[in-house]
Specification:
The protein is α/β, with parallel strands linked by helices. 44% of the residues lie in helices and 9% in strands. It has helices at residues 31-37, 60-72, 91-102, 109-121, 126-133, 137-144, 151-158, 164-170, 175-186, 197-202, 238-258, 308-315, 330-348, 352-365, 382-389, 392-407, 429-437, 441-454, 461-469, 474-477, 482-487, 491-502, 504-509, 515-527, 557-569, 585-588, and strands spanning 2-6, 11-13, 43-48, 50-58, 80-84, 224-227, 232-235, 264-266, 278-280, 288-293, 299-307. The strands form three sheets. It has a five-stranded mixed beta sheet with strand order 1-5-3-4-2, with helices on both faces. Strands 8-10-11-9 form a four-stranded mixed beta sheet. A two-stranded antiparallel sheet has the order 6-7. Strand 3 (43-48) and strand 4 (50-58) form a beta hairpin. The protein is globular.
Length: 612
């Protein structure tokens, strides 16, 4: 006899069933139990011609009750436990044996758990229990999983105060999470999730099943939570999953490039690959690979596509231009962008006259951060975030932030001076305004400078303008760390950075070494380990003001932003002035950065002086 779970769509009542086929069974006394706990007693079935379809020899009422529950749930139904008869089995004897064994058990699942747990303590395995009581191994494991629950939760379930779906999902929770859930349940003003919503609550939104992982699960270092009732398992830490998944996607993308594909495009998670906007195109004609990642971590590789517009060009015999791969990966660009932002904002906090003018410009033109929003210091990974938190620039601006909060008589441990959008922050606008009225000009300018620094948008041309005007020296504001080293993945980029840090001879000697070896040498030079001289006063080219790249491939956002900033400060050609007409004072003043005023000190006539 084989015990297994079979999809309800693959089951049908046998003509030999003792209750008949045509007559509808009375489900009055069985339907409430199936609604509450599902089908617990296995149906007796045998194969019906096809290896995938089975006919029910015994268990017609349980089958029909499951059909009713499935219809009530919009067609959703868990596979039913079944005992599959082998050739030559006596159906009546087998049914009698199973009924006899099941009759020894109290149908209540909590009582079952108590009995099964006692048997396990006496040395019986789940397989032994499964064979003894005519249950599938999965049913036994599901019952034993109730042991993961706090006693009070089991009591609530036994008393009918919470349903089976809630209990099953709570088996995924740790003891601490279960205690948190009970607190929500006891709080009349709080919302305690139930049923499948518990899974969303546990995993902070969309739960990520292990089935979507491209990497080997045995190599995953994070925790995995098994769902015995859903026959699936989930990643306890979504960020650890995304790091491992992205690393594997990057490896696959690199492999595609080595295979000769024209380009490999990795879409942002949640962005769809629309097939109607693309057409098939072979590799030899310039087709590229698109990698789509859904919000739950699933990855789809679309090989051999170009846009519809490019397809028309291919039909005309035109060759598609091969797109250069960006020099910086998204995490590395994020690292560089945030470090340069931290350094510029720190210098801005020391220049209230400039901050005033910048704040006025924001008030007139607006920006993505004004509403008012605060620039996040959180990176694309915990490592980048920690690096930013420990940055010299971040430490410097925090000193000014604490000073401003003290002036406003606010808690000096608050994360920001800027308060966010009107109506969504706990601070009282009137109280803050009245406090500012008591401060002198210098105090107001200090507060203003910090607010402007916190609401300065990272990764924009304004960072380049400020970095140039404030003469930001990244070698004084930033120190290389292992986060940067770990983010260096591009081989050509690695070789260039290695030559800069360790010298051309070392780079040449290790040009064929693995990326791991080259990163190790760079790390030794940065830290002065293993006999290598410590490299000081160095910053990568993209960090500097002005920034530059190491390769000719482009794709360095900060260089593009620098060029955009330079275009802003380049004076427009002066219009032709008719002879005899002199230019006005405004026309003669020029528009370059060199004409801007110096940082104010609050003295009369200085740009830092506030109007009375």
């Amino acid at each position: 006899m084989e015990l297994k779970h079979i999809d309800i769509a693959n089951l049908a009542v046998s003509a030999t069933n003792m209750r008949g086929v045509k007559k509808a069974p009375d489900l009055t006394n069985i339907l409430p139990s199936v609604r509450a706990r599902g089908v617990l007693v296995p149906l007796i079935v045998r194969q019906n011609g096809s290896p995938e379809t089975y006919e029910i020899v015994a268990g017609k009422r349980r089958y029909h009750a499951a059909l009713v529950v499935a219809e009530e749930n919009g067609g959703s139904c868990d596979p039913l436990p079944c005992a599959v008869m082998e050739a030559g089995d006596n159906a009546a004897a087998l049914e009698a044996s199973i009924i006899e064994n099941i009759a020894r058990l109290d149908p209540d699942e909590v009582t079952r758990w108590e009995n099964f747990t006692r048997l396990v303590r006496e040395g019986r395995s789940p397989e032994d229990i499964s064979n003894t009581f005519g249950l599938t191994a999965l049913q036994v494991k599901r019952t034993l999983a109730l042991g993961n629950l706090l006693p009070r939760i089991r009591t609530l379930y036994k008393g009918g105060q919470i349903d089976v779906a809630t209990v099953r999902h709570l088996t995924l929770a740790s003891k601490a999470q279960q205690r948190d859930w009970l607190k929500l349940l006891d709080d009349e003003d709080a919302y305690a999730p139930t049923g499948y919503r518990i899974k969303e609550w546990l995993f902070g939104g969309a739960s990520i099943p292990t089935s979507v992982a491209l990497f080997p699960l045995e190599e995953f270092k994070g925790a995995i939570v098994s769902d015995l009732f859903g026959e699936d398992s989930y990643f306890a830490d979504s960020e650890q999953f995304w790091q491992a998944q992205r690393a594997f996607v990057d490896e696959r993308a690199e492999a595609y490039r080595e295979e000769g594909w024209q380009d490999v495009v990795t879409l942002e998670p949640g962005d769809y690959f629309h097939t109607w906007e693309h057409e098939r195109c072979p590799k030899k004609k310039g087709g590229r690979v698109y990698i789509a990642i859904d919000s739950r971590g699933g990855v789809a590789f679309h090989e051999g596509y170009v846009t519809s517009k490019e397809a028309r060009r291919v039909e005309k015999g035109e060759a598609l231009e091969r797109k250069a791969r960006p020099e910086l990966s998204a995490p590395l660009e994020n690292y560089v962008t945030l470090h340069r932002y931290a350094s510029v904002s720190a210098r801005l906090a020391e220049a209230p006259g400039i901050a005033l003018r910048l704040m006025v410009a924001h008030a007139i033109a607006g920006s993505a951060l004004w509403g008012v929003d605060i620039q996040t210091r959180r990176g694309k990974s915990d490592a980048i975030t920690e690096s930013i938190e420990n940055a010299l620039g971040e430490g410097s601006i925090d000193i000014y932030r604490r000073e401003a909060l003290a002036m406003l008589e606010l808690n000096e441990d608050e994360a920001s001076v800027a308060g966010g959008r009107y109506g969504s922050f706990s601070r009282d606008l009137g109280s803050i305004f009245l406090k500012l009225l008591t401060l002198d000009d210098k105090g107001v300018m200090t507060v203003l400078s910090v607010v402007m620094a916190e609401t300065l948008e990272a990764g924009t041309p304004i960072i380049e303008l400020l970095g140039q005007y404030l003469e930001v020296d990244m070698t004084l504001c930033w120190e290389p760390d292992m986060v940067l080293v770990d983010l260096l993945g591009d081989k050509e980029l690695l070789n260039a950075v290695l030559a800069e840090v360790a010298g051309a001879d070392v780079a040449k000697a290790n040009i064929k070494a693995t990326g791991k070896v080259q990163r190790s040498i760079i790390a030794d030079c940065i830290e002065g380990k293993r006999g290598r001289e410590k490299r000081t006063g160095w910053a990568p080219r993209w960090m500097l003001f002005p920034p530059s790249s190491y390769t000719g491939r482009g794709g360095v956002a900060m260089v593009e932003q620098w060029n955009a900033a330079q275009a802003m400060i380049t004076p427009e050609p002066e219009p032709d002035v008719p002879e005899g007409i002199a230019p006005t004072a405004d026309e003669d003043a020029g528009s370059g950065l060199s004409a801007a005023p110096e940082t104010g000190t609050g003295e009369e006539g200085d740009p830092g002086q506030l109007a009375a």
